[in-house]
Amino acid sequence: MASDSARFQAFRDDEASINKKLPKELLLRIFSFLDVVSLCRCAQVSKAWNVLALDGSNWQRIDLFAFQKDVEGPVIENISRRCGGFLRKLSLRGCQSVGDGSMKTLALLCQNIEDLNVNDCKKISDTICTALSRHCHKLQRLNLDGCPLITDKSLKALSDGCVNLTTINISWCSNITENGVEALARGCPKLTCFIAKGCEQITSRGVICLARYCSNLEVMNLMGCGTIRDEAVQALAERCPKLHYLCLSSCSALTDASLLALAQYSTMLSTLEVAGCAQFTDAGFLALARSCRYLEKMDLDGCVLITDATLIHLAMGCPRIEYLTLSHCELITDEGIRHLSMSPCAAENLTILELDNCPLVTDASLEYLTSCHNLQRIELYDCQLITRAGIKRLRNYLPMIKVHAYFAPVTPPPMGSTARSRYCRCCAIL
């Protein structure tokens, strides 16, 4: 039997038939479809393949997430030199050893980059955005999620040199304030996507500036920006007619005035996430359901004031709903679920329904949901009136459905006064 070295001799030989029969341009084209790992493996086959695999034209889109723990500055600098002007998209998500020095080299050598992801690269600072502003004027998408050293200085730099920016994620950059957001809005009017989860220093003024200068906004995520008020949502609704994704979860100061503004102006909404907005009522969702017929995903977790009336309105007005979260909506009853189950969305589109901690929901709701033939997952944690028998009946009708439920163990009967309990309730749960 031939040895492994003999078996693969053809592939190690620079004069292998594939290299003779196919022109270099075609081989490069084939290599361009390979990921980073495959290119590195091909580079070890032969000298000819090494040259082909490491050709900068094959490294236009790079994702180093699989190597995140091993990626350090010299790796980024080598990639920058190899790729040069070819590099268009680079993801360094989770590469926490990468610092400012190597990123400055990247910006200087890869000036055609359009999409850069440095999510969770905790060592980088405002220096990177200053370098991008100076050298990378084609930058369109930038992810700074989880970079705690980033401040308003970065956004001001981007507004000066990256006017083509369309998407930015500054989530959990806790040092960014409304001043940085205002500068970004003034300098980057092409923004269509703004994500700022957990940026507690961004106030209504910053959001209003975005609405004023970036009228093409389509995606806005302000989860956890707790100081946002109704006037900010009203400005977004009035000035950004293309808005279709809006997350206001944990913006607890908002009232029905926000929902009324969205109902009046944001008729293209497809996703609305308002978990934890405890001041919203049936009146706001009634207006929304009458106008926003394209809604597909709604997260109403913790909207504690809504009742079955909201479900009745959504059932009548929103036939496209696929994903609906009603967890911790403690006033929802079987009657609301009954109306939902008879709606056009239930018959055709509803795939995920979350009902965690809805104490008034019983097995009757599960009976109604048997008509939802596309339902794929239902959440029933801590629904105390739901039984195993009810879930079993639901599965008889929808055998492929995933049911997530929790049933607390039965409390052990009290022991006699002279005997010590063998275990506590905590141990029983564990």
TrEMBL record:
Protein name in UniProt: F-box/LRR-repeat protein 2
A UniProt-annotated Pfam family: F-box-like
SMART domains membership: FBOX, LRR_CC
Binding partners and assembly: Part of the SCF (SKP1-CUL1-F-box) E3 ubiquitin-protein ligase complex SCF(FBXL2) composed of CUL1, SKP1, RBX1 and FBXL2. Interacts with calmodulin; may antagonize substrate ubiquitination by SCF(FBXL2). May interact with PIK3R1. Interacts with PTPN13.
Membrane topology: Lipid-anchor
KW Membrane (keyword) present: yes
Localization of this protein: Membrane
Pathway: Protein modification; protein ubiquitination
A GO molecular-function descriptor: calmodulin binding
Main location as per UniProt: membrane
Residues annotated as signal peptide: none
Keywords: Calcium, Calmodulin-binding, Isopeptide bond, Leucine-rich repeat, Lipoprotein, Membrane, Phosphoprotein, Prenylation, Repeat, Ubl conjugation, Ubl conjugation pathway
Entry's transmembrane regions: none
Domain F-box per the UniProt entry, residue ranges: 16-62
Any Gene Ontology CC annotation: membrane
Gene3D superfamilies: 1.20.1280.50, Ribonuclease Inhibitor (3.80.10.10)
Biological process, per Gene Ontology: protein ubiquitination; regulation of defense response; SCF-dependent proteasomal ubiquitin-dependent protein catabolic process
